[in-house]
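tool_call: predict_structure(chain=1)
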Amino acid sequence: MQQYSSLPEQNSQVDTSTKLLTSIEQLRADLWLECTLNKLQSRLNDCLLCTCTTEAEILQTVVNELNSALNASEVAIALFEPQDTVGKICYASHCPSKLISNTGKKLQLSLQQAIDIEYLQQLENQQPPSAWRLAEDFGGLTSWLIIARESSESSSESLEPPQTKLTSKLMARAANQCAVALAQLRQIKSLQECSQHLESFNQQLERTNQLKNQFLANTSHEIRTPLSSIIGFTHLLLAQGYDPTRERHQEYLNIIQSSGKHLLALINDILDLSKIEANQLEVQWETVNVPTLCSNVFALLKEKAANKNLKLRLEVDENITTLVADSLRLKQMLLNLLFNALKFTTTGSVGLKVAVKGEFMYFTVWDTGSGISKEHQTELFQPYFQIANAATGRDEGTGLGLAVTRKLVEIHSGWLKVESKVNQGSRFTIVLPLTQEERVAGDERDKADERDGEDGEDLNTISLSKILLVEDDLPNAKVIKTYLEKLGYQVSWVKNAAEIWQVITQLQPAVILMDVYLPDENGLKVVQQLRQNEQYKTIPIVAQTAMAMKGDREICLAAGVNDYISKPIDLPLLATLVAKYSKLGHTA
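tool_result:
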């Protein structure tokens, strides 16, 4: 009985050994799985640490590592365009393998082999699966991970080694690691692009600051130069005991006037750019006589060209007559380009050629000067940018002229182009449409009215006209008063709003010249008060102000003024307005 009873104990030991062996094999398989996945993750991490890694390299790394781990199987990745049902094998091992689906269909895993989505779905759903869907968006593509398993002579799952049983788990987890790595790579690339953009922005900011500092230095120099002339020659004229000849006296005054205009041009460049960028630049459309405007522009260049012994060439096509544009701004564009041409030309010629091609007019300013390098051409129209002038050894101007010119051209629905070679001269071409959709016919009528008022004025009427000048600035008031009195007007000057009410009743002026900024009241508010008074509501009022932004004219007109003139005052234009409205004042 005792011998018989010992048999089960021996069988139990055998069973225990078998189970232990199975557990060891399973542990080995699990260890193989984790080691393979860890090695794959390590390789993916290495790829992610490399700054030049691409998504293609991530996918190829997955294929290579899985091929290495699965000695008896081959791995591939197929890519599909969006909405396509047929894709291609894009990543595979070097040895093509046969892939068999549960329907018996065979496919060779080789590069560029076509494969349809339905076949992959069958492989995905069979047991064990042979295909796994990867990231849904690989550069806009759908990607699949595929394995070609080694065919087994026995279909019994129990005879498969543990590693084979874990292949599906390996592929599924590898597919997930691949998807995560692709997502991380995209995030890294995005951060790198942000960093590059930030670095580029910082460089641009530093460059802008350098240009602005240079701009301030140049502007300070450019403003102080004409101011020195104005102050210096004024000092000479005012100095006791100094009695210049009439010719010298006239020469000094001409220098003072020229320096003042140059100073105004510098300020206008700065203000124009500010107005353009704030979309506040007013454009007055009119029909411009192109040949006349070009001749007037060249008249302003003669002295500067003569001082440098340069020849001026003007060529206007004989068929050209008119163009719809803002004449003042067109003149400004041409002068900016021509003065630049003169500045950078030491010998030879500077010219302007005007021609029509189709529906566009071409204004080409050319010179035989130093030319512009390709590098500088890319920055030429940036605000504050200047090219060093070898002729003077320093930068001149504010660096805003070309930036303003291009923006003015664009406001005219045109474009500006440049052609230049170093030491061979430059060609700047303004291309403008012959007509503009926006036209202000009222401007044309107003100008005609102004001309009529000026041409038809009777001197006896002028001598009787009383003008009330409201201006708190002494120099401006003296200039205007002296100028108008020379034309025969009787000018009464007051410095503030309180003085207006003291003199207006006895004066009964034909025209009021109203400064907008007064020390004790807003000039436009005074205008509104005058318009509410029956005795004064018909007196013509012309606003004179430094307000020169878009919409300022409309603000003044809405307050009740008849017209508007901006400072610094254009004295001939002021005379035209006074003549026009003094006539209306007497009629009223």
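agent: The two ends are 149 Å apart (CA to CA). Proceeding to next step.
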